[in-house]
Known about the structure:
- By secondary structure, this protein is α/β, with parallel strands linked by helices.
- The chain has helices spanning 11-24, 63-79, 152-174; strands spanning 47-50, 83-84, 91-107, 113-128, 136-147.
- It has a 5-stranded mixed sheet, covered by helices on one side.
- The longest helix is centred in the last third of the chain and has 23 residues, at 152-174.
- The chain is elongated.
- The model is unreliable at 1-5 and 25-36 (pLDDT under 50).
Amino acid sequence: MRLFHEISLPRSLRALLFGAMLMLVPQSCRISYKLNGASIDYSVYKTIHVGEFPIRAALVYSPLQQTFENELLDYITRNTRLSTVDGASDLTMEGEITGYTLTPQAVTEDAYASKTRLTITVRVKYTDSKKDSNDIDQSFSAYRDFDASQMINDVQDELCQQIAKELVELIFNATLGNW
Length: 179
């Protein structure tokens, strides 16, 4: 069996045959790929509004709200072609930071914790103005452990940044990633 490029036809005739074969492909078929996990039909969805995520947790670390909101907006901008707008939009994402907790982990034989866990929980309300079945109202949590000999003030900026990145990925996959 000879391959197409081995057939001795003039180059122009081969190009014409290739073009004719492409025209035979049904119009309903299309090749689609995604490199970032987003599954957005950009012919339908063009805009997104990302609201504020105020802190409603018992413990409050005030830079967390800005850290989380910036990470979410940056991730959406990097991984989609949606325009972020204020006001009416095709998609809306809003919510609140509902949990910021520290819990002891890995208790040693002398009843002291050798690790402490920082857990952050975010409640997200995602609204799709075109398709109600895509709407989500869900909480997402992520955590990091750190050595109990460290003060939270010394590690909290780095931990909050790491946790915010993980939360944003979880939220993106559940909403815009549409897994």
